């Protein structure tokens, strides 16, 4: 067995299941889960039609680089969304969701034969970053997000000797769980560090189309272009249709960026067997070419967050995020910072599932930046989320 497998941590939802396993439920309430961040709005009909209309694709093996038509459609989307010129022949690859791409990219760019290979991850973070780093033979180094600065990462806390051994930096903007969007100054600082130390930046942007401000979130490639880095040196951005188009089961996304990295990434993917099904490619072309359903989807989230956020902010420290579909709340002082206890007691009394914040973060340098917080995924219909919020308010007021 690969000994590195034993270093993988249990997934947060498995820990949550165990936390709630022995609880006798209150039968007065039907169950509502705000636990898992799985989109639940309806899949657009145009995507379903494109899927069923392309079944002839079952008869052939797909190429790993994907059809030119898909890469061109993605390039056109990048132009519309970010005013970017991205070469579909050398700077774009289809991937089977951003999770797969995040993992595979680490296996491609990390050199475990160099001493102390290090991967910088946000904290709290999407769990795949850590597993990707460990299985690539590197050590993760966690940078805490700072609640006082809208959950921006505390890059200044990374010591010079850590930057010097860093091979890969994961960034997540808009972030999971706090929904913060990185600004141009933060990107510039990261690019300068990458130029100095030679690390690759993997920019996870899968929540980019669900936002609450007027202005759409700045993308990593967009930031690079604004700073004159038109070759996207050492930068790979990745996103997917899962949240944008409500198709988490389609497993479709793309990576785009530095052609010098895309080339060996294609080689890695060819051997790994990561080609996208032709049927999924056809559905993806339809999805990336249409923006109407994305606008409607965003409007649904905006309406839902406008209804739920004020209810909860009356009883706990929580605010509308920049983007994403989570509320990242501090639990009231009466719970003494014990987020898992809060989750357990809420579930027992009101049959509402929320994810303890500490499950999404690691203890690093003496603290867990997720402790004392909970993540609520507002993915169900508005009425269900409002009912969950009303129960949480009641729960907190009963203490
Ligand atoms: C931050 C983040 N990145 C990546 C993913 C993976 O999404 P997908 O593989 O569906 O693109 C998720 C899923 O929840 C996520 O929260």
Task: Encode the helix/strand succession as letters.
Answer: HEHHEHEHEEHEHEHEHEHHHEHEEEH
Number of strands: 13
Rg calculated over all Cα atoms = 21 Å
How many helical stretches? 14
The parts where pLDDT drops under 50 for at least 5 residues are none
Give structural notes.
The strands form three sheets. An eight-stranded mixed beta sheet has the order 2-9-8-7-6-3-4-5, sandwiched between helices. Strands 10-13-12 form a three-stranded antiparallel beta sheet. The chain has a two-stranded parallel sheet with strand order 1-11. It is α/β, with parallel strands linked by helices and 399 residues long. The chain is globular, with a radius of gyration of 21 Å. Helix 2 (45-52) packs antiparallel against helix 11 (278-289) and helix 7 crosses helix 8. The chain has 14 helices and 13 strands. Helices cover 40% and strands 15% of the residues. It starts with 11 loop residues before the first helix and ends with a helix. The longest helix is centred in the C-terminal third of the chain and has 22 residues, at 292-313. Pyridoxal-5'-phosphate is lined by residues 37, 97-99, 126, 172, 176, 204, 206, 240, 242, 248, 253.
Summarize the structure.
The protein is α/β, with parallel strands linked by helices.
Helices and strands in order:
Blueprint: H1 12-20, E1 32-33, H2 45-52, H3 68-82, E2 92-95, H4 98-109, E3 118-123, H5 128-135, E4 139-146, E5 152-153, H6 160-165, E6 166-172, H7 184-197, E7 200-204, H8 220-226, E8 235-240, H9 241-244, E9 253-257, H10 259-272, H11 278-289, H12 292-313, E10 326-330, H13 339-350, E11 352-353, E12 355-356, E13 373-377, H14 382-397
Parallel strand pairs: 1-11, 3-4, 3-6, 6-7, 7-8
Antiparallel strand pairs: 2-9, 4-5, 8-9, 10-13, 12-13
Helix pairs in contact: 2-11, 3-11, 4-5, 4-10, 7-8, 12-14
The protein binds pyridoxal-5'-phosphate.
């Amino acid at each position: 067995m690969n000994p590195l497998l034993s270093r993988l941590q249990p997934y947060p939802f498995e820990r949550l299941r165990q936390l709630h396993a022995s609880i006798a439920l209150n039968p007065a309430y039907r169950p509502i889960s705000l636990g898992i961040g799985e989109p639940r709005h309806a899949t657009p009909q145009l995507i379903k039609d494109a899927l069923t209309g392309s079944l002839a694709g079952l008869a052939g093996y797909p190429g790993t680089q994907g059809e030119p038509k898909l890469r061109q459609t993605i390039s056109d989307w990048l132009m519309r969304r970010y005013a970017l010129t991205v070469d579909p022949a050398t700077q774009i690859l289809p991937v089977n969701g951003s999770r797969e791409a995040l993992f595979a990219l680490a296996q491609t760019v990390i050199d475990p034969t160099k001493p102390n290979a290090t991967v910088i991850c946000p904290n709290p973070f999407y769990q795949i970053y850590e597993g990707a780093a460990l299985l690539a033979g590197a050590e993760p180094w966690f940078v805490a997000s700072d609640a006082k600065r809208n959950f921006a990462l505390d890059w200044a806390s990374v010591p010079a000797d850590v930057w010097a051994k860093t091979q890969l930096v994961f960034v997540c903007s808009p972030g999971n769980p706090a929904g913060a969007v990185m600004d141009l100054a933060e990107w510039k600082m990261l690019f300068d560090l990458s130029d100095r130390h030679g690390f690759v930046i993997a920019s996870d942007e899968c929540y980019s189309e669900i936002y609450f401000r007027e202005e759409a979130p700045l993308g990593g490639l967009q930031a690079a272009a604004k700073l004159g880095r038109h070759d996207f040196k050492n930068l790979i951005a990745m996103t997917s249709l899962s949240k944008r188009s409500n198709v988490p089961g389609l497993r479709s996304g793309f990576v785009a960026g530095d052609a010098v990295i895309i080339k060996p990434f294609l080689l890695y993917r060819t051997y790994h067997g990561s080609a996208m099904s032709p049927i999924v490619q056809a559905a993806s072309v339809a999805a990336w070419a249409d923006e109407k359903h994305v606008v409607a989807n965003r409007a649904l989230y905006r309406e839902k967050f406008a209804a739920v956020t004020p209810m909860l902010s009356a009883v706990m420290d929580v605010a509308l995020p920049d983007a994403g579909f989570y509320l990242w709340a501090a639990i009231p002082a009466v719970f003494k910072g014990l987020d898992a206890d809060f989750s357990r007691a809420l579930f027992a009394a009101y049959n509402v599932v929320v994810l303890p914040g500490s499950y999404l973060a690691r203890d690093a340098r003496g603290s867990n930046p997720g402790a004392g917080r909970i993540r609520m995924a507002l993915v169900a219909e508005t009425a269900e989320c409002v009912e969950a919020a009303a129960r949480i308010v009641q729960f907190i007021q009963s203490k």
